[in-house]
Amino acid sequence: MHPKALLDACSELVRLTLKFDHPADAIVSRFFRDNRGLGPRERATLAETVYTVLRKKLLFDHLAPSGSGPKERRLAILGFYGPGDFLRSALTDQEKRWLDQCEAVKPEDLMERHRHNLPEWLVQPLKDQLGAGFWPLVENLNLGAGLDLRVNALKAKRADVQKELQQAGIKAVPTPFSPWGLRIAGKPALNKNEAFLRGDFEVQDEGSQLLAMLVDAKRGEMVVDFCAGAGGKTLALGASMRSTGRLYAFDTSAHRLDALKPRMARSGLSNVHPAAIAHERDDRVKRLTGKLDRVLVDAPCTGLGTLRRNPDLKWRQTMAGVEEMAVKQAAILQSASRMVKSGGRLVYATCSVLPQENEAIAEAFAAANPDFVPLSAGEVLAAQKVEGAPSLCAGGEDGQLYLRLWPHRHGTDGFFAAAWQKK
Ligand SMILES: C[S@@+](CC[C@H](N)C(=O)[O-])C[C@H]1O[C@@H](n2cnc3c(N)ncnc32)[C@H](O)[C@@H]1O
What we know:
423 residues; N-utilizing Substance Protein B Homolog, Chain A; Rossmann fold; 3 domains; 4-stranded antiparallel beta sheet; 21 helices; EC 2.1.1.-; S-adenosyl-L-methionine; RNA-binding; methyltransferase; methyltransferase activity
């Protein structure tokens, strides 16, 4: 594609994304579906340009007014993903001079907001938690996320999958904490890979794998994945149960559960029972009162732990939205907890980094439910020989009560999890 045409396409995609009426990944996928002639390189340029604009929106909004032409074009020029001379061949002389000026701006001369590119309401909660770690997080969020795989322990060994990928020209290294994880450099297409089609692995962030380890579902047990969605964690739980026992995958979205079905077929699991529920107090839930060995509540959340891959979320969420979400999270956790049997385990998890969705929910639940005894996430993971388990945790007297993962510290998305045992 000619550089000018590619820049025009980038500008159009930036324009569509900045309406914020749908998630950026959905808008990008739709754009690709509508423009089937785009090659892999052009797609990469388009997607990365849009994601850079979303990541650095405050800075680019600050620089854009000094240029001319449609705003989305100026933003696409600033965020363009690709060689500088390729981009410059699409620009007018005036645009080239403007871009030179923008590139000459030194970070130290910028205001703080133009360096962190975060909405104000999100800055303080992050600074309060991270102190000096705030800026390393900011830098990490700009790098984008890697690609992690979870090897399906039911079907394959990690070393064998690693070798097979290597033979297919894909370099993968074991993840540092999860015994099932492989981390891949770049973003190779995997959906036609033979090992993938055989069900030997799934794409899953190492953080999600660690959540499944915290649940530690065993052979023959009765387990519920309460907010199963497309079943990422369901599949990990099913494999750790070695496809025995009974694993219910509940979700209010039948549409999301539908996406679990082909994954289940590949995985070889025969113990998974997906079921759409109307809400968290559904009759299905009531019928299982006191019957479950393990219940995972992977609660709906703001997703602010996934900003590396979903940078639009910081512009699509608000503090009012967080508060609304917290009410829902508390209600789901309370209702799901009724299914746990005496001696059983309850795990509450989010992919958010905000205490309002995490510690606050866990603390309020613990205070209202003295029959649930908090478990130390650090101890649960150390018992499964997760290396450096305490470094993955925070909270409680010994700093090991909750699983608390951060992109800049652990190379995963941001995750929180709390676990309890029912008396
Ligand atoms: C964080 S996502 C789950 C991701 C999934 N566990 C995975 O690993 O791929 C949260 C899910 O909660 C579901 N949900 C929202 N409200 C719910 C409710 N009241 N009861 C059960 N599920 C709910 C959403 O449809 C969404 O799929």
